[in-house]
Design a protein that fits this description.
Helices cover 37% and strands 24% of the residues. The chain is built from eight helices and ten strands. It has a six-stranded mixed beta sheet, with helices on both faces. A four-stranded antiparallel beta sheet has the order 2-1-4-5, with helices on one face. A hairpin with a 6-residue loop joins strand 9 and strand 10.
């Protein structure tokens, strides 16, 4: 599914744009990471693609159709898992399928495969309160994938996790992406994470948020944690960090 933003801008307060003049094309199956200083509109960008808020100007298009609201063709994962505490792991994952009226046998088959995919096959009947933070995010990812979305939107999903768990989740989401071939847009404050996961890294400026740079990541599709030590990785990480730092300084000078 091709995603296009054409002249997209967003104002929550009239005359104070959060985003302005966004023109962007993301090809089917691409993994794109978005970084930028606080206030650059990263999460607002995801909300526009998700259909949770309409653009003030411009259009968001999925395969040529204008986005006018949420839909099962887009899955969203937040920093907190936001699971239903009274529903089992399996029933949390099945929630969207139930809403679509998918027959029980098909739901159970789909949920079982997804739980195996995210490494939680043995916890289908557990309640969320028994799970670690990393396990809860695995459930949230499986739930977002349950309806076979053509675009998966990730809003800092690993931001609250410890370093080891975060690395485990990075490897997981990378493998899931390779397996399901969906388009992924991920917002993160972690530049290292963006370079490791993305095929492209978008750096947003502030006041208003615009695409300052669109950088390709030349690492292979199959990646390991050892790639974070490569000269190419370290050079690109430094370049992105310098860009984010420069945009932050420019923002502070305008405040």
């Amino acid at each position: 599914m091709t995603l296009r933003l054409e002249g997209v801008g967003k104002e929550f307060t009239p005359g104070t744009p959060v985003l302005a003049g966004l023109d962007l094309t993301i090809a089917p199956g691409e993994f794109v990471c978005v970084v930028g200083a606080s206030g650059s509109g990263k999460s607002t960008l995801l909300s526009l693609v998700a259909g949770l808020t309409p653009p003030t100007t411009g259009r968001v298009l999925l395969d040529g159709d204008e986005v006018t609201g949420p839909g099962p063709d887009r899955g969203l994962v937040f920093q907190t898992a936001s699971l239903y505490p009274w529903r089992s792991v399996a029933r949390n994952v099945a929630f969207g399928l139930e809403s679509l009226g998918i027959p029980r046998a098909r739901r159970e088959e789909r949920v079982g495969r997804l739980l195996d995919e995210v490494g939680l096959g043995g916890l289908a009947t557990a309640l969320p309160g028994r799970l670690s933070g990393g396990q809860q995010q695995r459930v949230a990812i499986a739930r977002a994938l349950a309806c076979s979305p053509r675009v998966l939107l990730l809003d800092e999903p690993f931001g609250a996790l410890d370093v080891q768990t975060k690395e485990d989740m990075q490897l997981l989401i990378r493998q899931v992406w390779l397996d399901v071939s969906t388009t992924v847009i991920m917002v993160t404050h972690d530049v290292e994470e963006a370079v490791f996961l993305g095929q492209r890294v978008l750096v947003l400026s502030c006041d208003p948020g615009r695409i300052a740079r669109d950088l390709p990541v030349g690492l292979p599709a199959a990646r390991s944690l050892e790639d974070k030590r490569s000269a190419e990785f370290l050079a690109l990480r430094a370049e992105v960090e310098d860009l984010v730092r420069a945009e932050h300084r420019a923002h502070q000078a305008r405040v």
